[in-house]
Amino acid sequence: MSALAGFRRLPVRGGGGAMPRKVGRAGPEGESGRRAPAVTAFVVFQGKGAGKGPAEPGAAAGPVAAAGDGCVRVAVRAKPGARSSAVTDVTAEAVGIAIAAPPSDGEANAELCRYLSKVLEVKKSEVTLEKGGKSREKVVKIVVPMTPDEVLEKLKKEASS
Question: Which of 3, 55, 92, 103 satisfies CB 3.0 to 4.6 Å to 80 for a cystine?
Answer without folding.
Answer: 103
